[in-house]
Design a protein that fits this description.
four-stranded antiparallel sheet; alpha/beta; five-stranded parallel sheet; 9 strands; about 60% helix
Length: about 600
């Protein structure tokens, strides 16, 4: 290829990878629905985008290393401490049942429907057992299922990828040995050797990451690039010893960094997340561009028949057997049965293994890549377009109501939570002391599980469905510092109480960000007024604030909170609810009286 052709091919690949993701976000569909046809069409129109021409022999190992980076980043988002009890049993059963049943189904159908040999059919079945976080994660972000379903599917998608990659490597080696009429050996022994190599690589990689992140403690940028270099180096070394074992090492390294107490990884990792997003786009465009229209001739209808069996029979059977006696509801089991898209590891394995089998003369091997491409495209499109209505029909989606997290447990804070609930919000509260947590329970409000930062930042906020955070503790410095930390995630609005004075506190007077109430309504002022008999009420807002009342918050019809930050009375809109503090004539109170009911 000439320099101009290479530049054109590389530039077009990047434009399609990023452009497809931008368009997908704009029209609110999973990116793979656009990435796959974009790469296929580009590959049909020009040869310059084909990775075999651009990268040559380097394409296959680069794909393996790229998938390792993806799995490492996925492992960072999985906390093994949360995988316990029934959830652990369900995930393990799903992986075992799903892998076995999917492999057997495809291997049995590929021969008669696609005219493949037994060896090629077994290889195709091993390739199509995987799902993966690259497809499951975006779909779950659109669906917003219940927390339990989110955890089960996220863990299954991340753990089945290295299992499927090892299975594919073992079947690939077995098929090659069979084609040369040589004895392959025990599959169990080969599997154990692969796992051992991956575990050894994970131990070495974790030690290197410990040295980098805990002992040396570089800055944020160097920490991110250091992790990237470590993962790639360890995955490459493992793959040199044994094919695809780098994937095991990568995801175990991510799990170790998340689980071991010495590591202090931020919830948000902009560099790694951006890199993974780009790599996913590049891989799907590149791999789909290698599928030619001629290669699809004669395999479309048979492949759709295999997809129908996988979707309507195999996956439901795997879920049924894996969830017996687990306490999942019928709706939860139904949604698990309707969520098994194939992803990047299936595409990478198909691209890698089909070349070697074609070169070895295995009958039907040339159909492996186009069939895998069609299965990925069909399952992603099917689940991507139907997951949301199916989840709603089964009643397994989280509430669409706004869900603010109130941090603090003073009596007036609990009353504020009750007022927000009466305004139609799904309130979540967190408090440090057991006494305050007891008052929250007595008020009938939901307590946030776990630690504050785990519940309110990064993936935790998305998992719990938190839409805003209100820092209302009696420690001004804590409110200011926590606001600074939480805003780094950038996921939800964070508000704090203004400090009691500009001279009080170490952090509070200088903390940046939006304060919750008007300047005169400090925490101390609100607490004193509540103790003197004022009550917090929520009522429809017509643009005026009653006498002896002050506005705390305005709740817009969609649940968005507008703080009363001293910027003037906001213009009312239809459906607005004002949350105010003032003396209510029909609710007399004394400082000794416990919190009374909230007016709605």
């Amino acid at each position: 290829m000439t320099t101009d052709e290479i530049l054109f091919g590389v530039g077009l690949t990047f434009v399609l990878a990023v452009g497809s993701q931008v368009v997908a976000a704009r029209v609110r569909v999973p990116a793979l629905i656009i990435l796959l046809p974009a790469g296929f069409v580009a590959g049909a129109l020009t040869d310059d985008i084909h990775p075999d021409r651009l990268l040559g022999a380097a394409f296959e190992p680069l794909v393996s290393l790229a998938v390792a980076v993806i799995l490492y980043e996925a492992g960072l988002g999985l906390d093994p401490r949360k995988l316990r009890g029934r959830t652990r049993r369900i995930v393990v059963r799903l992986i075992v049942a799903g892998v076995v049943l999917s492999w057997v189904t495809v291997a049995l159908l590929a021969g008669p429907l696609l005219g493949m040999s037994v060896d090629a059919a077994a290889m195709l079945g091993a390739i199509l057992v995987v799902s993966g976080p690259t497809v499951v994660g975006p779909l779950l972000a659109f669906v917003r299922p219940t927390d339990r379903l989110q955890r089960i599917l996220a863990w299954e998608g991340s753990l089945v990828d290295p299992v499927g990659a090892i299975l594919g490597a073992l079947v690939f080696a077995a098929v090659l040995e069979h084609s040369h009429h040589r004895h392959f050996g025990s599959g169990a022994v080969q599997f154990a050797v692969s796992v051992g190599v991956g575990l050894a690589g994970a131990v070495v990689g974790t030690a290197l990451l410990w040295l980098l992140l805990v002992e040396l403690r570089p800055g944020e940028v160097l920490a991110a690039t250091g992790q990237l270099a470590t993962v790639i180096a360890v995955a490459a070394a493992c793959d040199m010893v044994r094919d695809d074992t780098g994937l095991i090492a990568a995801i175990l390294m991510g799990l170790a960094v998340t689980y071991l107490p010495g590591f202090d990884m931020p919830e948000r990792r902009p560099f790694l997340e951006t890199l993974v997003q780009l790599v996913i786009g590049l891989l799907f465009v590149s791999i789909s561009s290698t599928v030619t229209p001629d290669s699809l001739s004669g395999v479309v209808l048979p492949t759709l028949g295999i997809v129908a069996v996988l979707v309507l029979l195999t996956r439901p059977l795997a879920v049924w057997s894996a969830t017996l006696g687990t306490g999942l509801t019928r709706g939860e089991r139904g949604f698990l049965a309707w969520m098994a898209p194939r992803g990047i590891v299936a595409a990478a394995n198909a691209s890698t293994f089909s070349v070697g089998l074609v070169a070895a003369g295995v009958d039907g091997a040339s159909k492996i890549l186009p069939v895998a491409f069609l299965v990925i495209a069909a399952t992603v499109t099917l689940y991507g377009l139907t997951a949301v209505p199916v989840a709603r029909r089964l009643g397994v989606t989280r509430s669409t109501r706004a869900r603010p997290l109130l941090v603090g447990g003073d009596p007036w804070t609990v009353a504020l939570g009750r007022a927000l609930r009466s305004a139609g919000l799904e309130v979540l509260m967190w408090a440090s002391s057991e006494e305050q947590r007891g008052h929250i329970r007595e008020a009938g409000l939901e307590l946030a599980p776990g630690e504050l930062l785990a519940a309110a930042t990064g993936r935790g906020a998305r998992l719990e469905g938190i839409t805003s955070v209100l820092l209302l503790t009696d420690e001004d410095d804590f409110n200011a510092l926590a606001a600074t930390v939480l805003r780094r995630g950038g996921n939800v609005p964070v508000y704090r109480l203004g400090p009691r004075s500009r001279e009080y506190g170490v952090v509070a007077p200088y903390g940046s960000g939006e304060t919750l109430l008007a300047p005169e309504l400090t925490r101390l002022a609100v607490s004193q007024r509540y103790a003197q008999g004022a009550r917090i009420v929520a009522r429809p807002f017509d643009g005026t604030v009653p006498h002896q009342h002050d506005m705390l918050l305005l709740v817009r019809p969609g649940g968005r909170l507008v703080p009363a930050d001293g910027g003037g009375t906001p213009t009312p809109q239809p459906g607005d609810v004002a949350v105010m503090i003032g003396f209510v004539p029909d609710h007399p109170a004394t400082p000794q009286e416990p919190p009374g009911p909230v007016s709605g």
